[in-house]
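Slide 14.
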Amino acid sequence: MSSAIRTVFSLPLRGLTWLGSQGTRAVAAVVFIAAAVPPLGALLRPYVTEAILVLLCISFMRVDLVALYGHLRRPALAASATAWTTIGVPVIVGLVTHATGLTDRAPGLSLALMLQSMASPMMASPALAALMGLDATLVLVTLVTATAIVPFTASVFASLFLGGMLSISPLTLGLKLLGILAASLLAATFIRWLFGADAIQRHKQPIDGFNIIILLIFASAIMGDVVSDLVARPVFTISLAALSFALYFTLLAVTTFLFRRIGYERALALGLMVSQRNLGLMLAATAGALPATTWLYFAMTQFAIHLSPYMLMPIARRLTARADISGTAASTDASA
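Slide 15: predicted structure.
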């Protein structure tokens, strides 16, 4: 009997381990599965908030506290990266949307762009950076500091740029963001206390696999109407997809350029983080009470978010190889 029970439990574990080993391929596949099965989206849409809470909890649970403390002792770089992603990006996006008149001509799209810019980086950013061979520790530290202050910065920028476009007040938005993040952090702390950091590290791949399943739930929930929108408004839908890719790679390129002095490999890791905005956090905070255009834009951003890490893998490999060669040459010179 005990052997049968072990077999029953080992099969899902093996499946999760295999799924977690697929890396960026599995992350890219998620978006196509979510778009191809609209009924799945209709079924899962009520669970967007729960999916976001689980994703946040998994990310907090896997924080490398030793590496985090090491970077926090040298805070200048993390502080500048945090200021850029939480203040610089929303200020620029807010000024551009108002200067171009987008706020009046397309309020739903303007709201989507502002919520995207105000959001903290995705909690999966360190894992994606690690999968690409980039510096995940710096990404993690910046992610933690940016996430800690985003309830306050989002409230300020909502007051400055959104006016009455949100169904909730800026203060309520900030408080809801704070509550979601605090609940996830408490749950993650309890899990780390219950199982221990070593056990979490040993089960890295099954946890990666479970994380991908939750990503599928989230992506399906917000992409359930993509096919029908594409059929009904093909030009508009494709234009939103193109805009999401353009904004993604603009943030990636600008961030990499701004932080190029720390080395292009680490700068690209920060660029990846800044480009990956946690739209799910904003959906959870607003309870999904957003215009149809905002929902559709958020759905289109999933293609850029899920496909770009896979597309950027060749560049990341070249940069990490160059960094390894430079490091080897430097150590050889030092020993000589």
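Speaker note: The chain has one domain: 26-316.
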